[in-house]
Amino acid sequence: MTSPDSAPAVDLRSDTVTRPTEAMYERMRSAPVGDDGLDGDPSVRELEAHVAQRLGKQAGLFVPSCTMANLLAVLAQAQRNEQVALEATAHMYTSERGAATFTGLFYLGVAGAGGAMDLGALQEALQGGGHRLKTALVAMETSHNNAGGAVLPLDHMQAVHGMAQAAGAAVHLDGARLFNAAAALGVDPGEIARHADTVSLCLSKGLSAPVGAVLAGARPVMERARGLRRMLGGTQRQAGIMAAAGLEAVRTMGGRLAEDHARARRLSDGVNRLAPALSASVPQTNIVQVETAASGMDNAQWTAALAAAGLLVRPWGRTRLRCVTHRHIGDADIDAAVGAFAAVLKAHRR
Predict the structure, then answer these.
(1) 0.70 exceeded by pTM
(2) Which residues does residue 144 pair with via DSSP β-bridges, in sequence order?
(3) H helices of the chain, where?
(4) To pair with 262 at 20 to 30 A between CA atoms, which of 104, 121, 125, 320?
């Protein structure tokens, strides 16, 4: 790590490290609040209504995290002994699958590429009957975390939604970074959300709110989710203080995400100039995966050496590092990050 007297580290571990804007702090200070577990909180209601309208849904539900939003979507739309089908590297499958222990549901990973499920494999998963569990819910993710921020094509999402509807299954979209996907496609978030029955949106990643997520969908589903939120301990009382920051984030921060995407591409280009020892993915959004297998160093060595050089990254599997750009990262930070990779390589080769 850098010393206290040196320049702050360039933090590419995640876009969750973003801090609220001054406008968000001001909204938090002046937000009208109530008890969201009793007669409601006006700022929470405003956020829920605004996100629902932006995503083309009837109602929204403010929750502490996108993990809870995804869990509520599953609980509200599927029954015990049914199945949730989702792409095999989806975040809901690889990182949130512990939720299945609370649901009594089976999570089925469907093979795919670039975060998109193979449609033939999905069709097989949707064929219930006999010894097969009924697939009650199909989940998609865009942008796709483990696929390096890949964005699902809209025609693929439309096909998945149509197949699920024909089989009597609902569709949930893990849209933790939905606004990044929308920026990459050059469309409104609602154009993506229309291909799902429920959508989760994280407020505390690139949108820079301090905490929280919104689940949006049909009003009856959201009412079921609201009751389930209480059961899970997700009622937050004067939550309007946080909801006000989330509302500011949704209204104002989506337009600047293309800057993060451009800087991710700048990082990718810089790291790829260090080939063949390192190779970086070519990002669609704000996530860059760096393959380290050919460098002769393992990821524990890389993360420690980069931290000593002033760059914070996350190990992502055995031979990959994940770097995520966000609004606190400028062009100079990207150049410093590439310089840190080069310096570590040079020191290792001595």
Answers:
(1) yes
(2) 150
(3) 22-30, 42-54, 66-77, 91-94, 100-103, 119-126, 154-166, 178-185, 189-193, 219-231, 240-252, 257-272, 299-308, 331-349
(4) 320
